[in-house]
Design brief:
Strand content: 25-35%
Distance between the termini: 47 Å
Radius of gyration: 16 Å
Largest sheet: 5 strands, antiparallel
Helix content: 25-40%
Structural class: alpha+beta
Number of strands: 5
């Protein structure tokens, strides 16, 4: 059911999980049709699952858990949206909140072994700001 649910999400691009990774429950990534999709398998109190993080420059990122029964759960993904204010203090606070939330998402992704980042992902995470300090 995991493979079928994943394939439905990416049917338009004919993207499926590699058979060998499915059989061995191995982590991996797919770069195809403009997508960077990183995935790993796991198990919790609700059963076996596949977590994937999908990034494409033409859409928002998605971070999804698919359980072996086909049930899905949305997980935190990087946000490219940044609220702004004309008040400089409020604008700074909003930017800091945005960057902190995205840094938390990056840490969770890295814990899963999702260490491949597109330029848009890196910019959304504020990784370009780290070098400016």
């Amino acid at each position: 059911m995991i493979a079928d649910t994943f394939a439905k999400h990416f049917a338009h691009w004919n993207i499926t999980l590699p058979e060998e990774d499915l059989e061995n429950r191995s982590s991996g990534y797919i770069q195809q049709a403009g997508w960077l999709i990183q995935y790993c398998f796991g198990k919790d109190e609700n059963g076996e699952y596949l977590d994937y993080y999908a990034a494409h420059r033409m859409t928002d990122d998605s971070h999804v858990r698919i359980y072996d029964d086909g049930r899905e759960e949305s997980l935190p993904a990087l946000s490219g949206w940044l609220l702004h204010s004309d008040d400089p203090a409020e604008a700074k606070r909003l930017e800091e909140e945005h960057d902190e939330r995205n840094r938390t998402v990056v840490e969770a992704l890295l814990e899963k072994g999702f260490d491949k980042f597109t330029i848009n992902m890196a910019l959304s995470a504020g990784l370009d700001k780290e070098t400016k300090k």
